[in-house]
Amino acid sequence: MDLSSKSTSVFLSDTTSVVDGTLPDTDLVVNGSETFRAHAAVLAQASEKLRQLVLQSPPAPASPIASEPSAKYVVQITLDEPQAFGDFIKFLYTRELPTLTASQLLSLAEISVHFDIEALRTIIEQSLSDRLNFATATTDADVDLVLRLLPRISTLFGPDASSAIVRFAASHAFTFFRQPFAPHIDLEVLIAILTSPKLRVASRSQLISFLHQLKKLHPNESRLAKLSQDQFYLDTLRTDPTGIAASVACFFADGSEKYTEMTKYAITTFLQSTPSVFVGILTHDAETRETIQRALPRNLLHRVMFQLTSATEHIPGWNQTQYKLDIIKFADADLGFEHIFWFDSDTISFEDSRPFMTRFSSQDEFDFYFTPDHVMRSESFRNRWTPNWPLNLVPQACMMGFKSRVMESFFAVWAEKWRDWVTPFPFAYLPDPNPSFSGSAFCTEQYALGLALNKNNWHKMVLTFDRRLVIVQNQQKTADGVITISGGGSGEGSTGSSSTTGHWAEEARQEAQRQTYKKNLRVVVVPAEYTMASQYFVEPQDLAERSGVDSAAMVSVSTSLLFGYPTTSSMSLTSLSIPGLKVQPGAVVADMFGGAILHTYNQNYTVVKGWFDEQQKGTK
């Protein structure tokens, strides 16, 4: 075939595609593993480099399959980013590109430079410039794309696309500066980002720290020294007034099979529901870190940071909850984190948590962000606590926020009080304020928080957030399509067992799904058999206010629920009359924070997760 001919291209998806009456005659073997077949004339027309590769390639061996035509040429190609080579071949025939992922765009950019395909390079640069300059909202995919392009910006892109990438990186410098590769990219690109009018950082300390890293790498670069000494430059920095850029949501994966799985899910739902916010993950070892990292979405990893827990125990012999104290490792001025949030492993984020977090991060008056623990409503607890200590606030420890400026001093006191409660064993020296609750020893972290807040008047520096109760009921579908509604388990004070059956018609199922997946998540499917007793009661009016349900619906309830568990067998949520909601026997309640986060309690976790997965499918 004449490789200088100008052919009219017709591209079909199989190897019988024809151009000027001929079958594809060239095998392109990419990185020795994947083969694409194309026409030598089409390749030659696209690029002089491709033409030379075809001409210089050895003849192809005969096909071992008689019915399969042999290629005339075999071209070996080596690429760093081969993911979109198939899209490249299609482009040569159609001059069209699909919607590109970050990996595809990076791959095609490399291919366009590698083979000097000016038409492809022009389309990619225009597409990239439009995407970064005119997008109505920034997505994690955009940030991930730019972070992957930055190290190769000088070799892959022309001025227009490079400028768009630099402007975007500057406006997201609070994310870019936290990437391990950031100080090591091309110095001219770094200077362009640092001097861009779009520069936005988490804090002044974050920028100063990044400049310090750069000066160590480039000690003779006068422009860096000038920037770090320019008071006007430092004083006029753009930072995020909401504080979200300086916030981090912290989780702990302890390495156990059960809780590591829960933590992976908690982190994933947070990352997927809440844009922009960084996630800090504590692990004991590199193996657990790698397990978590593999489980998270690839395009969200730029918002994830890891720290190892302390090598020695904070509270010798105590359980894994003590490693909450290690979230102080993320209170690092160099990283620009000023607002540190803690999330328990049994949380599920179903909505954007930024409004909830911003309420704390955007203000400067309060240093702590807590919700009162259930014990604050127990008269028995108050009677046992107040003779020994002032009862200002005993916080719930499943969801918390701290200003970094106070963490060092406060955490030292918190750890000291915690040791007092449990050393050499729980309540050896300090009296149990809640002896009727079998899990009281597990709550010592919260009792210690309460005592720590009494020091230095820290209790006056607490911004509280609401815990809203959501009604939880169990609906388990059996293999024969019958719904079984189960009551409580064998725990003391659980509701006894009851069941009802009926065929679950598709229409009813869809309506139930619509009812359950409202944004306030009033109804959550949880197995009552995982419950245990709670001695805490609230008045119907109080439950109505905290759950967002009309108080008129609560008047027939003589006792209510807290702590996510049924109280006594005499308790009946089925007497509720809530429009559009049929409450089944065995109902319990769970916690909801900020209209965005569900706290399931790990006893109920497995089925809550299963329910949530089903609701997610129903909204897609």
Description of the molecule:
This protein has 620 residues and is an alpha/beta fold. The N terminus is likely disordered. Helices cover 37% and strands 13% of the residues. It is built from 22 helices and 19 strands. Helix 1 runs antiparallel to helix 2, helix 4 runs parallel beside helix 6 and helix 18 packs across helix 19. The protein is elongated and about 95 Å long. The strands form five sheets. It has a seven-stranded mixed β-sheet. Strands 10-19-18-14-17 form a five-stranded mixed β-sheet, with helices on both faces. It has a three-stranded mixed β-sheet with strand order 2-1-3.
Defining key terms:
single chain; 620 residues; alpha/beta; 7-stranded mixed sheet; 5-stranded mixed sheet; 19 strands; elongated
